[in-house]
Design a protein that fits this description.
The structure holds two protein chains of two kinds. Chain A is 73% helix and 0% strand. Chain B has two domains: 110 residues, Roll (Ubiquitin-like (UB roll)); 114 residues, Alpha-helical ferredoxin (Fumarate Reductase Iron-sulfur Protein, Chain B, domain 2). Chain B is 35% helix and 13% strand. Classes of the chains: A mainly alpha, B alpha+beta.
Chain lengths: 222, 252
């Protein structure tokens, strides 16, 4: 297929799958925010999701496809780029490239590893069985107790906050990059889109990192 | 010249005898350099000293020395063309440097630009990309009437901005991925903006991109380092335009 071979075709696949995952993390954060309203809200939200039945699996398979395409092509393109650029300069003076744009592969792989851990932790629930099997007063699975129980442990809170910093770095380049790749950009819109991308990255960092931070510091009680 | 203050600089220059020879950095002292010397004239002075002392002069590319031919190609202190906005190496002047400065001079580094000798690289990969579609096919013959094909002024301006590219190679040299996307996009955008070029737009973008890959250039990942290094100010908006042209080509 043209799209899978062409340099721009693969870039477009990276951009679209990446952006779909950004939409997912935005919705995921909105769902997670119910934790600030109270245990009842979070547990009810989780129950609603689970009651969707087969749709949950359709959604999971779609996400797995986006994730797979993004990781495979991201790795492939990076390997190709390293081949195209075998000898580095003795002095490197970057004018526009940023730490975030130059380390997409590393922040990306860090997050890929994190997603595996996150699923084992909160979805399959095998990493901390002692706190992830509770049932609340009305017989629902007690997500609130699982989350607060986890983030009261410094190491888990630290891992989650670290992963969210990787997400922030990845998206400060990734969001604006999507618009450029899709061709929805020109000299006037580029600085605006770039700022919007960074704002999205900051909002997601603050939103996501606040949960483990609030629980670990005891602001949000278990 | 004698009424000018002169400066002494330390140059750390990449020396390589041939395409397959191993290269290394050599240190030279540039003496008697005035602020009015261009960077290439400074190298001429150094080379004269090297020749007088029986040493092999530093080989570098140059031609017009007025910033329009795209021949000079040196990475100075880690930036292609030295980092002065919209300036080629030949138009970079020594007033940008201070007495006692140490300057690193390296050739373009990209797999698709193999080193010939010292600072001279083979940039024929850019010609190969142009041969793949950087033209319009048209009947030749009598001179066409000046206003037979009307082109709106904004379109003509847009095409001219893209056509400013002199094919020097700085974009691929600056790119962390050694991608030639800015160069390729400038030609794709220029021709796609004009009625004469629109007919072959879909074929052109596919062929030029394919050839860019075959030549060994990397993939663009939107670092925008190319635009910052471009001595002609070619804008990355043309890469967005290329991406649009590519998406359109999928439908044709």
């Amino acid at each position: 297929m043209q799209l899978l071979k062409s340099t721009v075709g693969r870039k477009i696949l990276m951009a679209i799958t990446g952006q779909l995952m950004v939409l997912f993390v935005i919705v995921h954060l909105l769902g997670n925010s119910t934790i600030f309203v109270g245990a009842d809200w979070l547990n009810a939200y989780a129950k609603h999701l689970h009651d969707l039945g087969p749709f949950v699996w359709v959604f999971r398979l779609a996400m797995l496809t986006f994730f797979g395409v993004h990781v495979i092509f991201g790795t492939l393109l990076t390997l190709e780029n390293n081949t195209a650029n075998p000898q580095k300069y003795a002095v490197n003076n970057k004018l526009e490239a940023t730490f975030s744009s130059e380390n997409m592969i590393w922040t990306g792989l860090l997050m890929a590893a994190f997603v595996v851990y996150h699923l084992l932790h909160f979805t399959v629930r095998v990493t901390n069985p002692e706190i992830s099997q509770g049932i609340d007063a009305v017989g629902r699975f007690n997500v609130y107790a699982m989350v607060t129980g986890s983030f009261q442990q410094g190491i888990i809170a630290f891992i989650y906050i670290g992963a969210m910093i990787a997400l922030f770095l990845h998206l400060s380049h990734g969001v604006q990059s999507f618009f450029q790749t899709m061709g929805w950009n020109n000299a006037c819109t580029r600085p605006v889109i770039s700022t919007i991308g960074k704002v999205v990255a900051v909002v997601l960092l603050v939103g996501y990192a606040s949960i483990p931070l609030f629980i670990f510091t005891g602001i949000l009680k278990g | 010249m004698s009424d000018h203050k002169t400066m002494t600089l330390t140059l750390i220059v990449w020396r390589q005898k041939g395409p397959n020879a191993p290269g290394k950095f050599e240190t030279y002292t540039a003496k008697g350099i005035t602020e009015h010397h261009s960077f290439l004239e400074m190298l001429d002075v150094v080379n004269e000293d090297l020749i007088k002392s029986g040493k092999e002069p530093i080989v570098f590319d140059h031609d017009c020395r007025e910033g329009i031919c795209g021949m000079c190609s040196q990475v100075i202190n880690g930036v292609p063309h030295g980092g002065q906005e919209r300036t080629t190496v030949c138009q970079l002047h020594m007033r940008k440097f201070k007495d006692g400065d140490t300057i690193y001079i390296e050739p373009w580094r990209a797999k698709a630009f193999p080193i010939h000798k010292d600072l001279v690289v083979d940039r024929s990969a850019y010609d190969t990309i142009i041969q793949a579609g950087g033209y319009t096919s048209c009947h030749t013959g009598g001179v066409p009437d000046g206003n037979a094909v009307l082109i709106p002024k904004p379109d003509a301006d847009y095409a001219m901005d893209a056509a400013e590219c002199i094919g020097c190679g700085a974009c691929a040299a600056a790119c962390p991925n050694s991608s030639a996307m800015l160069f390729t996009s400038a030609k794709v955008a220029q021709l796609a903006a004009l009625p004469q070029g629109k007919a072959e737009a879909a074929e052109r973008v596919k062929n030029m991109l394919e050839t860019m890959q075959e030549c060994g250039f990397g993939n663009c990942s939107n670092h925008y380092e190319c635009q910052a290094a471009c001595p002609k100010g070619v804008n990355v908006k043309f890469i967005a335009k290329l991406n649009r042209e590519y998406l359109k080509s999928l439908a044709s």
